[in-house]
Amino acid sequence: MGIAARELSLYVIRPTLLYLGQDNPDAEALLLGIAASQSNLGSALHDRRGHGLYCIREPRHAALWDEYLVHDPDLASLVRGLASQHAFLCSPHLELTVNLRYATAIAWLLIEQQKIAIPAADDLLGMARIWRQAFEPHGRLRDFAHAWRTCVSPLNQVA
Hints:
Blueprint: H1 5-19, H2 25-39, E1 46-47, E2 50-51, H3 58-68, H4 73-80, H5 87-90, H6 95-98, H7 100-112, H8 124-134, H9 141-156
Antiparallel strand pairs: 1-2
Helix pairs in contact: 1-2, 1-7, 2-8, 2-9, 8-9
């Protein structure tokens, strides 16, 4: 069983985006949908596709640091501030599995670095396209939609 969508959004995704200077409910919904698609909201935090909620592969993680964050030391410092002080130095990719806020920041930056326009939170197909472009190039849009309807949609309807 994964993390409840509402709690993941409220306690992890939203505060992380705010920490990064992104007050954007559409980005929040997109990351929630990606977590649902990639790991069933944390039901599987490590598999052949990558690490953590967002199943980020080690080469993509390293490339983000080496090719994107290297050009923005202030942002790099901000993101590094989310990582564990000592564990990050020994095993940086493990942070993607054990540190939800760090993983969320990295997932957001994988999207941001591509300079992709973020679709509205109610544009399921638009979010699915971003997921496929940024995380699963061979993914099927219907898989994203199914994960959204299964993991996210029912929890958003609870008042």
